[in-house]
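Private note to self, pasted from the team thread so I don't lose it. Backbone tokens:
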């Protein structure tokens, strides 16, 4: 073996530098998570209520979809159109 085979120009990675690298990465991830939480904190209650309503009203939606025998995309269109109509009539 020549001296060129032993040394490839990169310093040997020690255990302490590997641990330091791990701590830096963990710290950056933690900072990113905290920043995301601060951005979404005002909306967390709204998101929880949206999830609760979606889970509880899905069986009703499925039952209505089976009774009407219309494609799901068309049902969504009809539902939105009726809501818009009701809103316009309420405002007038």
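Design output:
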């Amino acid at each position: 073996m020549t001296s060129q085979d032993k040394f490839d120009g990169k310093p040997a990675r020690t255990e302490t530098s590997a641990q330091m690298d791990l701590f830096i990465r963990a710290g950056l991830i933690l900072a990113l998570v905290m920043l995301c939480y601060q951005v979404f904190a005002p909306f967390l209650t709204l998101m929880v209520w949206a999830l609760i309503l979606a889970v509880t009203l899905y069986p009703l939606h499925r039952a209505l979809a089976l009774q009407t025998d219309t494609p799901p995309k068309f049902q969504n269109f009809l539902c939105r159109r009726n809501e818009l109509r009701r809103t316009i009539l309420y405002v007038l």
